[in-house]
Amino acid sequence: MINIEINNKAYKVPTSFAELSLRDYCRCFNGLEKTEGLDERELFMATKRIEATILSRLMGEADDFAMDLPLTVYASLVDATQFIYGINNLKHSGNVEVNGKVYKVLKPEEMNLRQWIDIDVTGEEDSAEKFIDILSMLLVEQGEDGQAKPYKGYDAEFAKSLGDLSCDKALPVVYRFFLRGAISSRISQLYSKLAVVSHSPQRIAGS
Question: 168 and 194 share a domain?
Fold first, then answer.
């Protein structure tokens, strides 16, 4: 976590997935500017705006806040928050602990029909907290015998509680499901585009 003061206001900026909640992650990536069909120059400008928007949201400010930061401050904060584009580096054990209970993540072929339908339908929606809802559907409580209890349907209260999970525990589960091709790949494509621009020689930050 970076502690920084800007315009007499103190900020705590996360520098790892362990310091970022799943709810804040969803907020950072919700409704970002579309980049499909842009030429190279337009793509570069769009991805820089997206980068600034994500940083602004990490700081809890309006989307254009980072645009007004001094270049040296902006560059250092962008470098410190590059972790957010490294979701593919996260590891997942297959179990997640929530409020003292252990939840298992089933393979698609182990899911019952109700669970698969809920996940599939939710994956097609464009909601602000889709990742949280999908995670709540992927997790099934582990019984005392170590076996997964049957999935009984979407639980809004359980989903709400998952928003506070740190991303190092929550994101690998959802991302693994994305990799299986069960949901749209638009977010993964955006990660790739941002990674390319972030390491481009034309990069503003650090110049």
Answer: no
Q: Is 101 helix (H, G, I), strand (E, B) or coil?
A: strand
**Has residue 44 been placed in a domain?**
yes
Enclosing H/E stretch for 133: helix 130-138
pTM of the complete model: 0.79
Q: How many Å apart are CA 45 and CA 187, to the nearest integer?
A: 18
Q: Which residue is it, tokens 């969803």?
A: 26
Whether residue 23 has pLDDT greater than 60:
yes
Residue 45 lies in a domain: yes
Q: Is 96 helix (H, G, I), strand (E, B) or coil?
A: strand
CA angle 129, 133, 136 (to 5 degrees): 140
155: domain range? Answer: 90-184
Domain check: are 84 and 8 in the same one?
Answer: yes
Residues 6+ apart with CB under 8 A from 202: 44
Residues 48, 193: Cα–Cα separation, whole Å: 10
**What is the distance between the alpha carbons of residues 202 and 122, in angstroms, rounded to a whole number?**
38
Number of domains in the chain: 2
Each residue of 78-125: pLDDT tens digit? Answer: 999 999 988 877 877 678 889 889 999 888 888 999 998 998 888 888
On whether both 158 and 123 belong to a single domain, the answer is yes
Query: Who contacts 101 (Cβ-Cβ below 8 Å, separation ≥6)?
Result: 141, 142
Q: Is residue 96 part of a domain?
A: yes
The HSE-up count of residue 188 (CA atoms within 13 Å, CB side) is 14
